[in-house]
Amino acid sequence: MTNGKTKGMRLQIELYRWYLDIAGNISKASANRGVSENLARLLNHLRDLIADGWQLQMSNEWSCADQAGADFIWSHPTHGWYALDAKAVGLPRCAIIRHVSVGSSNDKGEFNQLRFEDKVGLVRLLVQLARHETPIDPVVCPAPSCAKARTLVELTNDLSAFQRVLVAASHRLADPRLECWSISLGKSLCYLRNQQAAAGDKSKVVEMQQVLVGHIAAFLDRFIEKSKSSTVVGGGAVRQANFKRSTKLSYVAGEDIVKVLSEGRMLSISGIAAGIRKMFEQRYSALIGKHGAAQWLITMKRIFDQRGIESVIDYVLDRLEARIA
Known about the structure:
Blueprint: H1 7-24, H2 26-30, H3 37-52, E1 55-58, H4 64-67, E2 72-76, E3 80-87, E4 97-101, H5 116-132, H6 152-173, H7 176-228, E5 244-246, E6 249-252, E7 257-262, E8 265-270, H8 272-291, H9 295-324
Parallel strand pairs: 3-4
Antiparallel strand pairs: 1-2, 2-3, 5-6, 6-7, 7-8
Helix pairs in contact: 3-5, 6-7, 7-8, 7-9, 8-9
């Protein structure tokens, strides 16, 4: 099993793999001499339910069912479905989600953890639900998807849609447990939306970094050309740099961060001074290789070392100020 999975998740996976194995070999398992009469009877019930169309699915990570708190969906195409939550400690989010115990012991298993009584308990619960209880109507309230969402946006939209389905179904079926479940999804939706916003900010930061690189390159091009002709270097190099333009745009020298408002969100782009220094050194090395120790190169390097980085940042802030105006 891959690293990074929680103990509870490992037990959940182990339980599901045991179920798939036992479901595929029920006749053999129930005929085993070591199987008690009660367990053999349960397995035979399970065999009949599977033959009738009942199916147990485990929700994938980052699926709608997973984010809704359902580790398993026990369903029949026409009768309905149940949501199951595998927990060693604690209770499911609300009463309509049924608890599947996954305690641990020294019982031998794939992870040497899952208790035998929990394996039997899963079969007992599945039989009880299908034989004696009323499932959720799949027409009024379809089950959440157990398939992993392709994107964070898709997952957020799916969970939000499922929340709306739960609210509508709770009113139509007069079942407050469905409304309780819809309310409990608020925390997951808030988390997903924050993740989505963070991902959007990261994309904007990358885009802004590309804009900054373009402005830095433009300044250095002009700086080098004016150095070759021995005129006043860089234009902005002769004025005092202004690092704070407004609440929407500034440069924090101590942290080497440009802060810029973009589409209503304040972005922080770090490492601009270091990036300027690197770009200049790359160009200077190429010029030294081509022109040797020319006097204009020596003068250019001296001027840049004195105030070049400040001048480039001032120039970049000019360009960004025009962009957000």
